[in-house]
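@channel sequence for tomorrow's demo:
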Amino acid sequence: MLLCCSISAQPSRKSKSNRLTIKEIVNNQLSEPEGELIGAVHNAWQRYLKGKPQKKGEKIILDGRNGYFRYENNNAEKDVHTYVEICYWNRSDGKQLVAWNSVVIYEDKPAVTECTYLEISLYNPSSHEWEELDEDPVGVCLTEKETGPSSYGYNSDTKSYFLSYSNPERKITMTKEEFDQWIEVRPIVIIELPRVGKDIIVKTYEGKKITTLTLKWDGMKFHRADN
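C-alpha cells (generated this afternoon):
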C-alpha cells in the first residue's frame, strides 16, 4: 500500500463557510456508486440519510464535530470485517486535504485485496473545486522494510520463487516451502485515520508482530513522529 495517491471528485455544493463539512464530503465521495465496496457504502449512506435501518452487520458513524465518517461491515459467516473511513484536514493555505481509507480484516488479520487502499484528494474552498495534487499529498512514503518487497512470486524461467526489491542487487530466490513460510509473515500495512486529533497511525503486521508508526500533521502534510 502506498501513502501517496490522489482521486478525482465531482463538483460539490458550497457551504456557507466555503469549506466543506464531512457530510458534504461523504456525499461527494459517494456520488457515483461504482464497484462492489463503494456501492455497498453508497447504499448504506443513503439508508442513513433517510433514517432507515442498516443491513445486518453494517454500521455508519458520522461525527460532524470531528469531521469523521466511518462505514463498517461485519460478515460473521465469512469472518470478514471491512471498514471505510473518510476525514479531512484544514491546511494552513486554506485548502482541505481529504482522505478515503479502506481496510479489510479476514480471520482477525489484515488482508491485501483490491478493496484495501488509501486515497487522497484536495479541495479548494475559494474556487469550490477539487484540484490535482502536483506534490506528494501526505509527505511520507513507507520504506520496503515496512511494506515488504516491491514484487514477489514465481519465475517460470528460473522455476523458482523470488522476492524483488527496488535495489536491483537485492533479489532473493527461494523454494516453494520457503516462499509459503514467508507469505504467512509478509508485511501487511493498514492505515488508521484520526477521528479525534490530526495524526495518522500506520500499522505493519508481520505474522503476530505489529509495528506502529505515527504520522504527525504539521498544517500542510505529515512527517514521521521520530523525525
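heads up for whoever presents: The first strand starts at residue 58 and ends at 63.
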